Amino acid sequence: MNDLADLYQELIIDHSKRPRNFRRLDATVPGAEGYNPLCGDRVTVYVRMDGDIVADVGFQGEGCAISKASASLMTESVKGKTRSEVETLFSQFHDLVTGVDKSEQLGKLAAFSGLHDFPARVKCGTLAWHTLRAALKRQTEVVSTE
Ligand code: ZN
């Protein structure tokens, strides 16, 4: 059990120090902004869709290690997924970090399973996901010129 906790901690430290997909996409992709006033975390998430598939995703921002690592692992987890797969993953992740369902099999995202013991930090872990949803929503609202 301790080995697993250590592994999870290493994963979070690694992703907070060297966040993956820490970049904005090209200038035509608008970002959705998220803010967690409890901790001061700020994140902007950029998503490029290919039909119903998340073709590319990136983020920028400043915040605590949990919020950064969560955003980094979120980007890795959702690339190549459909909107509904992203929704399912988000609800599983949410259940995991809030302790509703600790049995979710979420691979690396399970690194955040300890968050349910720290309710104040749950928002750090879910901020990037909420922001991703806002970005996806905006994608459906893109107006057509026709
Ligand atoms: Zn935070």
Brief account:
The protein has 146 residues and is α+β, with helices and mostly antiparallel strands. It contains four helices and three strands. It has a three-stranded antiparallel sheet.
Topology:
Layout: H1 2-17, E1 31-36, E2 41-50, E3 53-62, H2 65-78, H3 83-98, H4 119-140
Antiparallel strand pairs: 1-2, 2-3
The protein binds zinc ion (ZN).
CATH class: Alpha Beta
Chain-averaged pLDDT: 91
Shape: globular
From the N-terminal CA to the C-terminal CA, the straight-line distance is 58 Å
Task: List descriptors.
146 residues, alpha+beta, Sufe protein. Chain: A, three-stranded antiparallel sheet, 47% helix, globular, binds zinc ion
Q: Would you kindly provide a written description of the structure presented here, covering whatever features stand out?
A:
The protein is α+β, with helices and mostly antiparallel strands. The protein has one domain (2-144): Sufe protein. Chain: A (Alpha-Beta Complex). Helix content is 47%, strand content 18%. The chain has helices at 2-17, 65-78, 83-98, 119-140, and strands at residues 31-36, 41-50, 53-62. A three-stranded antiparallel beta sheet has the order 1-2-3. Helix 1 packs across helix 2 (65-78), helix 2 (65-78) packs across helix 4 and helix 3 runs antiparallel to helix 4 (119-140). It is globular. The model has no long low-confidence stretch (mean pLDDT 91). Zinc ion (ZN) is lined by residues 36, 39, 41, 63-64, 66-67, 124. Zinc ion (ZN) binds at residues 36, 39, 41, 63-64, 66-67, 124.
